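User: Can you help me understand a structure? I only have the sequence.
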Amino acid sequence: MRTVKDAFQLLFTEEMILIIVTETNRSARKAAEAWNEQNPDKKWQRKDTDSEEIWVFIGLLILAGVQRSQKENLHELWSMNSGRSIFRATMSKNRMDSLLKFCRFDDAATRDTRMEVDKLAPISEFWAMFLARLQIRAPYGLKFLSPVQSESMKSKKSEWTGLDYGLSPVHTELCYRYATFQVVQ
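Assistant: Let's start by predicting it. Here is the structure, written out as tokens:
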């Protein structure tokens, strides 16, 4: 393992990235077709994303989190005055905004049918692949230096919804992970 990307590729496979690429492109293409149908004289020219751009996109999201920028909007992150140059040097603000708007993990056309049996249909395939990678990689030397907190969000209707996740130490040298979904209707 020589680069940060190599470290991420232990957990995120190219197959997982290709799901994001395919579904993000499908979502953007559908929006562009609808726009162009309504505005034939002002066509929306769009460019498909690819796996390399999605890796960059993920990296910028992680960097924003590391720098505790979750309360800042894109304009602030890309600002010439108060923003960070790494964001401007890596990707245009408009492209980042477009990727955020259209980023998808599943096919929206089949989502309603899948939601009838799986409340987490928009992310379930991707999440299962991620958990499988955790099970493969944790015993081979990935060490977790701090505990992961479990998070839940309380909705406006006083129902608990959210996602519980974490790591459970089972052996002195290995950490096995567990993940539970807590979705209450």
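Now, to help you interpret it: Residues 4-149 form one domain. The chain is about 50% helix and 10% strand. Let me know which part you'd like to focus on.
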